[in-house]
Amino acid sequence: MDKTSSFSIHKGKPIRCKAALCRKAREALVMEEIQVDPPQAYEVRIKILCTSLCHTDVTFWKLDSGPLARFPRILGHESVGLVESVGEHVDGFKQGDVVLPVFHPNCEECKDCKSSKSNWCARYANDSISNTRRYGMASRFKDSTGEDIHHFLFVSSFSEYTVVDIAHLVKISPDIPVQKAALLSCGVSTGIGAAWKVANVEEGSTVAVFGLGAVGLAAAEGARLRGAAKIIGVDLNPDKFELGKKFGFTDFVNPTLCGEKKVSEVIKEMTGGGVDYSFECVGLPSILSEAFISTRTGSGKTVMLGMGKHAAPISLGSFDLLSGRTICGSLFGGLKSKLDIPVLVDHYLKKEINKAFELLEEGKTLRCIIWMDK
Ligand code: NAD
Ligand code: ZN
Predict the structure, then answer these.
(1) How do residues 97-143 score in pLDDT, each as one tens digit?
(2) Cβ(236) to ligand 1 under 6 A?
(3) Smallest Cα–Cα separation from 372: which of 207, 158, 211?
(4) Which amino acid residue places its CA nearest to atom 5 of ligand 1?
(5) What is the pLDDT of residues 291-337, one digit of tens each?
(6) Are 232 and 205 in contact (CB under 8 A)?
(7) Which of 99, 135, 192, 298 has its CA at a distance of 20 to 30 angstroms from the CA of residue 323?
(8) Which of 51, 56, 240 is the best mutation target for the ligand 1 pocket, counting ligand atoms within 8 Å of the beta carbon and taking the most?
(9) Is 211 in the pocket of ligand 1 (CB under 6 A)?
(10) Beta strand residue intervals within 151-205, DSSP E
(11) Do the beta carbons of residue 151 and residue 74 sit within 8 Å?
(12) CA–CA–CA angle 109, 191, 186 (5° rounding)
């Protein structure tokens, strides 16, 4: 059946559908019938086609204190969908369009969105607390008792339908298979963007990636495509090493097998003094310190991608920094979603970044694509 055939009857009205609700930190998600309100101005209601699980969902699922711990909540942010209906003042999206929701905003109008210096949308990115981008704590979801359900990262894709602000939405070519497109909504884009845009890895360079989940594997893929000569993968799970070879890793280090040596010492020995670039893709401050010290004195660059709990402080040796290393963090791999996602889709369609998709899609990492209507 045409996936859009029932859309017109719901336009402007609430939709009842199923969602996987997180009612309490660390408790199993429960399938419940919910109500999804129609989109307000600058919002779009989407039928989710596929979603996947990113470690950030797990981090927030475990979070039981602080302002970001809110329940009941619909988690999920890596997804792809079809536009069901649009609110007022929505240009550029219409019913039936294939769209990617993205947790990181891109209003296209603020000073930073107009500058090429960063992907930090000054207008919206500082607010990570609200449910809806322009309406504060107002929610578009209600449970069967009428209680509001919290949104997650302005996406909430573990639901058959969700409402997303246009600052978090990108229209993409319908030519890319949707199960692959979903991965561009967070993990694959974050890793590839980090290698291409944030680190700007160049041909012949040496790279270390800490954490071979979807983000780390995609960072390696990005480095491989830039012609990196050596890409070292660091993970506690040896199963990731076989998988990693397909993404361009040339060498592996298992921290549990380093004996007395620190991982950074092993990496320095393997590279004659340290890698040109390191990527932290786990979310632990101790790993970030190791990633930092694994880089070459004078010129090494570390990119932090992992997201730990409660924004924990990090510790770096001041002389290690003074001696010329740099470190920076990045959300969504430094990509501006509206500008860069269509470019990545294009690379996929030209078969240039396909490795980053194949195994992730098969669920051989934490990424496992969930079809919403199968
Ligand atoms: P994942 O769970 O799929 O992968 C994490 C990997 O790290 C696993 O292979 C695991 O075995 C490995 N690991 C765990 N502890 C380790 C240790 N002590 N030493 C070495 N390896 C270890 O995670 P993912 O979905 O790829 O996400 C990775 C991180 O990136 C998470 O912190 C997530 O929140 C974050 N993230 C950030 C952004 C961003 O915009 N910056 C986007 C997506 C995800
Ligand atoms: Zn902006």
Answers:
(1) 999 999 999 999 999 999 999 999 999 999 999 999 999 999 999 99
(2) yes
(3) 158
(4) 213
(5) 999 999 999 999 999 998 777 889 999 999 999 999 999 999 999 99
(6) no
(7) 192
(8) 56
(9) yes
(10) 161-165, 169-171
(11) yes
(12) 60
